[in-house]
Amino acid sequence: MDNNEIEINKPKTNKKSKAKMMSLKIIPLGGLGEIGKNMTAFEYDNEIIVIDCGLAFPDEDLYGIDIVIPDVTYLIKNKDKVKGIFITHGHEDHIGGLPYILKQINIPVYGTKLSLGLIELKLKEHAILSDCTLNMVEPAETVNLDKFKIEYIRNNHSIPDSCSIALHTPVGVVVHSGDFKVDFTPIDGKVMDLQRYAQLGKKGVLLLMADSTNSLHKGYTMSEKTVGETLENLFSKATGRIIVSTFASNVHRLQQISNCAVKYGRKIAFSGRGMENVSEVARELGYLVIPEDMVISLDQIKNYPNDKLTIVTTGSQGESMAALTRIAASTHKYIQIFEDDMVIISATPIPGNEKAVSNVVNELIEKGANVIYKSIEEIHVSGHACEQELRLIQALLKPKFFIPVHGEYKHLITHAKIAQSMGIDKDNTFILENGDVLELTRNSGKITGKVPFGRVLVDGMGVGDIGNMVLRDRKNLAENGIITVVIAIDRRNKVIISGPDIVSRGFVYVRNSEELIDEVRNIVTDVVEKCLDKNITQWAEIKNGIRREVDNFVYMKMKRKPMILPVIVEI
Amino acid sequence: MDNNEIEINKPKTNKKSKAKMMSLKIIPLGGLGEIGKNMTAFEYDNEIIVIDCGLAFPDEDLYGIDIVIPDVTYLIKNKDKVKGIFITHGHEDHIGGLPYILKQINIPVYGTKLSLGLIELKLKEHAILSDCTLNMVEPAETVNLDKFKIEYIRNNHSIPDSCSIALHTPVGVVVHSGDFKVDFTPIDGKVMDLQRYAQLGKKGVLLLMADSTNSLHKGYTMSEKTVGETLENLFSKATGRIIVSTFASNVHRLQQISNCAVKYGRKIAFSGRGMENVSEVARELGYLVIPEDMVISLDQIKNYPNDKLTIVTTGSQGESMAALTRIAASTHKYIQIFEDDMVIISATPIPGNEKAVSNVVNELIEKGANVIYKSIEEIHVSGHACEQELRLIQALLKPKFFIPVHGEYKHLITHAKIAQSMGIDKDNTFILENGDVLELTRNSGKITGKVPFGRVLVDGMGVGDIGNMVLRDRKNLAENGIITVVIAIDRRNKVIISGPDIVSRGFVYVRNSEELIDEVRNIVTDVVEKCLDKNITQWAEIKNGIRREVDNFVYMKMKRKPMILPVIVEI
After folding, report:
1. With a CB-CB cutoff of 8 Å, which residues 465-504 of chain B face chain A?
2. Residue B452: pLDDT above 60?
3. Residue B13 covered by a domain
4. Residue A229's domain spans which residues?
5. Cβ contacts of B374 within 8 Å, gap of 6 or more
6. Claim to verify: residue B239 and residue B328 sit in the same structural domain
7. Is the backbone of residue B387 left (phi > 0), alpha (psi -120 to 50) or beta?
8. Three-state SS for B508?
């Protein structure tokens, strides 16, 4: 029996060596293999912290769904361990899940001032603000927990107060870039803290997790300031009103638009609920600075001449209810398009929104506006790092391990290759999926398990109650409509007493299809009478027969497959 | 009484001067204010001819619709006048409406050899080929009718045998560009007939109608040949199979892919119904030339090593049933993705398809394929003229009047401005909408009326039977589902005999919502009993009550608005 074995038989004295062996678990719950709902859990021993808690907007196959949030079953199961959610910045895909998830599990939330301001808005709307704990962190500040120290490091992004996080853990330093770009001339003058990146790199970084959104794009992302130059050029030429549509949360952009407006003596009105809310919070907190007398409300615009007005509005994505869309469709309460309006769409369509944006552009042009959009002027820059910036942070941090995050598979794999070309070992690069458990020690990493993950669908007040079956039904209803067949049967005497009544929706325009409906009625009567004659009184069997026969008939006749819904009323 | 009045009172002798005064009517039935379903009617006296007869693919708000075709009510009303449909080239948005419209009104169809080959395929599928008259026209040939002479002029486009049309009319020459680009190094060596354009311009062109698709793009469209160079480079590097996805109708592209395959000793297999059909027709007619022994069928690919195979497939738009989509989803009968496959997507997503294509790319990469797509290599060029080419044909033709065609409003207006900057009078530029009747004389043009126009929806066998009401229902069903409420009432005794039965689809997963359904049942019972107590036996009134109360309850409870469908069975 040698010393080693003795050690093993003495668990009480084993504490130190066990701690040494413990690994850091990294569990992405969202944001991998997709754009949106970013959320990652880090677990060491009895401590879990979470970075970000975002939402995703539904794909078009998610009929009727409002938003999508991550599955946090794992956090709920381990709720005693979860010490905090650390928010990198205030975009929807990083904070939008909070109201739903804080209702399920009340965890302290940490973030910078503007992020918390935007989170407060949300929690107020959901009437849970007073139940939640929000802790402000300054860039360069560190939150000390038992196992984790969470250090905020300023970066640049399309919203002020955005940070990367250096997570100091017992196995080493993990840097999570958050969403970022490197802007050498940011609007607020606060360049990303590259020195701290370098310092961490010098000391040794175990793992980098970095934003992959723009990994397919070569070169550098342009500075936000370049948009200001284009804007100023446009403002100098406009003769009528200027209507600018952009993301409400892009406070830097709002600042640049406001600066131009002020310079050219134009009052500024904010339009759209998101724009009104964010501009108010940003002004209150000092992130958006506009002379008080230059801001007016929408109902005042009629008091000013056109060339003294700038309207800043939501709707840059062609969202059906957003202000710009309503302006284009002439359904906005305060704003109609005039002949000499200049409309600037200072954004790029998010994939999937191209057609909607194009429709809005066409409507605006048809109404006489001079519409300035991406194809015409460089009126938007991305908030995400391109290849050269991704290389820069690799060079500064020189991490041992690398996980590309925030992106679809094509973005992740391209980012992994970039990292490998900068010297990261292929075996030390992990392309994870949501729910993967990566266990990391000082020397090795391995996927060791899977936790519940996936998309939780929010529809109205319902969170997670819409499943695949309901979605499948909605898809079928959307494409083919429904035929409801109601028939009343006297079970004892085995006769039809009433019906069949045929009611359809989304199938055919009934007034032109009376003949067809009559035929369906006859088919149903036939099926039911045959069943009753054969003494079949299992309603399920009769219903199956109705479904089958009506389905066959309609498909043969029309090559369509409406949902068939038989209802038997038993008297 | 002066001479003029005498003339007016002598209609018989008025013939010549009346003919002099007669104007050419130009009536776009599709393709204006939209991309797709191109179709224009030209009318002079008792003669109508039509250029093109296309389809459009449905927008996402057209739930369940297969395709969209133009409204040809005007042609049907004037069918004795209609002498022919003249097809410029064989793309769906120029020929896809033919099978539907020829069923309604049998008109001779004219086109070049490949166009007719592709039209034959369609008419066979619809089993009407033998009823139709197809007339082949060679480029540079003219069809002489009574009032119109229709001259075919070769142009370049992303399909061989594409032509512009010079329409010689009593009021002057109208040039319709068709879809075109100017390719100085086309694959078939046949450069657009710019000399004929110049000659017509020299003699005098009354009106130009030209393709606006790419009017927002500066510069020139690259030659199809440049794609060949990129392809060859990729073929030289591939170690496994090469799978190329492109538009089946882009026979030039198929030729270039085949040339590369032959050069590198790879057999060629065509995958997807469209690809198989078009490649067969194109080979039969001599537009696609591949050595017989190099083409194999899909079931033979297993007999060849990977580096001796090229698969050419449909699905470049991520269409859900297309071959590449099925390959990516591992549901294709013959083709699974291997680790060393190179997949080349030689196309750009059509607006609206971006997300679907991106999903296919991600799935292919996840399965290990090396996917080459637009963001990575210049693997596609457009078939449409950019600004400089549009200027070139203006310079050659120097038309008096101009109508930009084939494009959304933003394309049309930009094209109009390009034409005006080339010297066309603003008053001589007409931005038309579908259905407009433009009357043109030698000296003036004027919109004088409107004919029926719009989108006729094709769903299965139904053409035009789906209207706005059905679409509105489908949208509502898609987003919210349906609750069917069935109740049997004894009218004489004014009591409920059975029900209410509540059946929902696409609303909630019923097993988790029993309580909710119970509440709905109680609400319905309440409403009905109250009505019956009050002697209300108007079913419509009771139904309205049910709808209102259930709607309110569900919205209050869930913030959702399912369709409520009450059915009362009267016993």
Report:
1. 465-467, 469-471, 473-482, 484, 486, 488, 497-499, 501, 503
2. yes
3. no
4. 224-372
5. B345, B348, B349, B380
6. yes
7. alpha
8. coil
Assign B538 a pLDDT band (cuts: 50, 70, 90). confident
Identify whether A500 is preceded by a cis peptide bond (ω within 30 of 0).
yes
Q: Are A338 and A302 in contact (CB under 8 A)?
A: no
Counting other chains too, the contacts that B416-421 makes at CB distance below 8 Å and 24 or more residues apart are: B418/B215, B418/B387, B418/B390, B418/B391, B418/B394, B419/B208, B419/B390, B419/B394
Q: Are residues B433 and B543 in the same domain?
A: no
pLDDT of residue B2: 40
Rounded to 5 degrees, φ, ψ at A114 are: -65, -40
If we measure between CA atoms, which residue out of A471, A63, A479 comes closest to residue B63? A479
Structure tokens at A251: 């406070």
The reply to whether A125 touches chain B by the CB within 8 Å rule is no
CA–CA distance, B212 with B38 (Å, rounded to integer): 12
* Domain annotation covers residue A1: no
B236 a known binding residue? no
Alpha carbon distance A565, A115 (integer Å): 49
Bridge partners (DSSP) of residue A70 are: A455
Q: CA of B356: which chain A residue's CA is closest?
A: A352
With contact defined as beta carbons under 8 Å apart, do A473 and B481 qualify? yes
User: Distance, in angstroms, between A411 CA and closest chain B CA?
Assistant: 9
Closest CB from A460, A478, A506 relative to B559:
A460
C-beta of residue A165 within 8 angstroms of C-beta of residue A40: no
Residues A185 and A311 in one domain: no
Same domain? For B500 and B517 the reply is yes
Report the domain count for chain B: 3
The CATH number assigned to the domain holding B145 equals 3.60.15.10
Q: Chain A residues with CB inside 8 Å of B58's CB?
A: none
- φ, ψ of residue B301 to 5 degrees: the values are -60, -25
Q: Give yes or no: residues A261 and A333 share one domain.
A: yes
Q: What is the pLDDT of residues B260-312, one digit of tens each?
A: 999 999 999 999 999 999 999 999 999 999 999 999 999 999 999 999 999 99
CA quadruple B481, B485, B486, B490: dihedral, nearest 10: -160
> Can you tell me the mean pLDDT for B390-414?
97
Which chain B residues are within 8 Å of A459, Cβ to Cβ? 560
In a domain, A515, yes or no: yes
User: What positions of B carry a catalytic annotation?
Assistant: 211, 384
User: What pLDDT, in 10s, does the model give residues B14-28?
Assistant: 444 444 569 999 999
pTM of the model: 0.87
Half-sphere exposure of A385 (CA within 13 A, CB side): 27
Q: Cα dihedral sign for B416, B417, B423, B426?
A: positive
**Closest to A108 (Cα-Cα) out of A126, A135, A130, A69:** A135
* Separation in Å, CA B14 to CA A346, B2, B23: 61, 15, 16
**Is the residue at A301 inside a domain?**
yes
Within an 8 Å CB–CB cutoff, is residue B412 touching chain A? no
CA distances from A166 to A173, A176, A196, A420, B209 (A): 7, 6, 10, 22, 62
Distance CA B153, CA B51 (A): 14
Q: Determine whether the annotation assigns residue B115 to a binding site.
A: no
Collect contacts of B444-452 with beta carbons under 8 A, ≥24 apart: B445/B207, B445/B401, B451/B27, B451/B29, B451/B73, B451/B74, B452/B71, B452/B73, B452/B74
CATH at B318:
3.40.50.10710
pLDDT value for B510? 66
How many Å lie between the alpha carbon of A243 and the closest alpha carbon of chain B? 18
ipTM: 0.82
Distance CA B201, CA B207 (A): 10
Q: Which of residues 16-45 of B touch A (CB under 8 A)?
A: 33
| Intervals of chain A under pLDDT 70 | 1-21, 510-512
